[in-house]
């Protein structure tokens, strides 16, 4: 790993979710040459762009809804099953853990079976997992979390590559569509959790189970693409690996820069999933109503759009991203400090600061993966490493926060430790932001 001259083309493109060119999108199938049958099937798919667009939007709506929709209901779920704070934190920790584990298998599945089939199966798996979580068993609750996390991991890894592959000239605008839909799904799910519970009259189970319908509709919309792409089934086994891919995984594991990028991805995911798990509970524990806490949590999801759009746009046009690392970590730290000293009085402000910081941090983490990579194959490998290790690290956040809350009866220690996470993210993010390549 050594500094290299900054390449202008990297500055003229943008990361996922921002306007600009396609090269910064990470393709899970990078390093493979498509077989003739695969190329023909891709042309057939692109002849039906409306079908493809509908499938992308509906699938993207599902990519965070099943996670965000459970947070306002954690207290009720814990009460229903008699769970401790530590055990109830597993409701959100288990899916995050399997975001990392599922990311390991996603590239291989995409190469072996084709992105369309795997995404269709992921949506079916997601709907099944959502339904499993509403069964009258704590074991089913956690098993459903395994299925939900695995399904979302497949969507996370394969969706950007599919967009890059099928919309090379409109990849940035299409990525904005899919990331916007993803955030919209999370926002609506968070805001609607308590109202759905009241409207459906089925307690938390009715509210949580509702999102299986969204997954079913998305799977139905994806089915035509599976039929059109049926000739691509074995395209991965017939494809030839690009020679540049040889030896990359081992080299990444020995690269300090690769670990800096990976740890920044993991730490920003950790502070985000602590909020996904506990933000509404923090508010209600300080006297706020459940419905208001759900709306403020939805506002947090909505404000992530601003950071997710602006920060990667700036990162893709500068040689050095250290100032942006400082910006996003400072915003998140300020929001957590606010939750610590005046959670209810400044709830809207803290939620907004956290949202912009969260959105900016995840956008910056994804951008760093590509800006610090020397080629598309390395970017794909680094993306897999960062997502796998990062989500495994992030899964500890909700669990540890819940255990500390249970042990102390207060949110002071958990929130203080997350401030330490912010400081650590700054420490690894600053060297990751320098103009170098793996």
TrEMBL record:
Membrane topology: Multi-pass membrane protein
Intracellular or extracellular location(s): Cell membrane
Biased composition (Basic and acidic residues): 1-14
Highest taxon of source: Bacteria
InterPro entries membership: MFS, MFS_Cyanate_Porter, MFS_dom, MFS_trans_sf
Transmembrane segments: 50-74, 86-106, 118-135, 141-163, 175-196, 208-228, 257-279, 291-311, 323-342, 348-371, 383-405, 411-432
Chain residue ranges for the region called Disordered: 1-23
Gene3D superfamilies from the UniProt entry: MFS general substrate transporter like domains (1.20.1250.20)
Domain Major facilitator superfamily (MFS) profile, chain residue ranges per copy: 48-437
Pfam families (UniProt xref): MFS_1
Keyword set, alphabetical order: Membrane, Transmembrane, Transmembrane helix
Name of the protein in question: CynX/NimT family MFS transporter
Organism: Streptomyces gulbargensis
Organism phylogeny: Bacteria, Bacillati, Actinomycetota, Actinomycetes, Kitasatosporales
């Amino acid at each position: 790993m050594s500094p290299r001259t900054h390449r202008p083309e990297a500055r003229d493109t943008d990361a996922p979710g921002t306007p600009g060119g396609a090269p910064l999108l990470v393709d899970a199938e990078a390093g493979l040459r498509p077989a003739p049958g695969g190329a023909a099937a891709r042309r057939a798919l692109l002849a039906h762009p409306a079908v493809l667009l509908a499938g992308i939007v509906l699938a993207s709506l599902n990519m965070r809804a099943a996670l965000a929709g459970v947070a306002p209901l954690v207290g009720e779920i814990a009460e229903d099953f008699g769970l401790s704070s530590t055990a109830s934190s597993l409701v959100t920790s288990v899916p995050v853990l399997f975001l990392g584990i599922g990311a390991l298998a996603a590239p291989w599945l995409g190469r072996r079976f084709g992105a369309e089939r795997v995404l269709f199966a992921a949506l079916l798996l997601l709907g099944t997992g959502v339904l499993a979580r509403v069964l009258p068993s704590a074991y089913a609750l956690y098993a459903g979390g395994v299925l939900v996390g695995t399904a979302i991991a497949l969507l996370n890894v394969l969706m950007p590559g599919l967009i890059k592959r099928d919309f090379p000239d409109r990849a940035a605008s299409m990525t904005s569509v899919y990331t916007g839909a993803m955030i919209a799904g999370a926002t609506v799910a968070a805001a609607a959790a308590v109202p759905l519970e009241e409207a459906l009259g089925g307690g938390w189970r009715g509210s949580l189970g509702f999102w299986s319908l969204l997954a079913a509709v998305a799977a139905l919309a994806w089915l035509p693409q599976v039929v059109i792409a049926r000739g691509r089934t074995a395209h991965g086994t017939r494809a030839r690996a690009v020679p540049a891919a040889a030896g990359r995984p081992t080299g990444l594991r020995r690269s300090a820069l690769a670990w800096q990028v990976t740890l920044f991805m993991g730490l920003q995911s950790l502070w985000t999933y602590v909020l996904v798990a506990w933000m509404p509970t923090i508010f209600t524990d300080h006297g706020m109503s459940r419905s208001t806490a759900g709306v403020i949590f939805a506002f947090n999801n909505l404000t992530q759009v601003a950071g997710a759009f602006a920060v990667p746009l700036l990162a893709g046009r500068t040689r050095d991203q250290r100032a942006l690392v400082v910006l996003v970590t400072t915003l998140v730290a300020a929001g957590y400090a606010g939750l610590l000293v005046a959670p209810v009085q400044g709830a809207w402000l803290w939620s907004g600061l956290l949202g912009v910081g969260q959105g900016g941090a995840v956008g910056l983490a994804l951008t760093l993966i590509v800006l610090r990579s020397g080629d598309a194959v390395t970017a794909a490998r680094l993306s897999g490493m960062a997502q796998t290790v990062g989500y495994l690290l992030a899964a500890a956040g909700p669990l540890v926060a819940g255990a500390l809350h249970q042990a102390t009866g207060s949110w002071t220690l958990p929130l203080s430790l997350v401030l330490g996470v912010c400081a650590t993210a700054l420490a690894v993010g600053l060297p990751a932001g320098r103009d170098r390549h793996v």
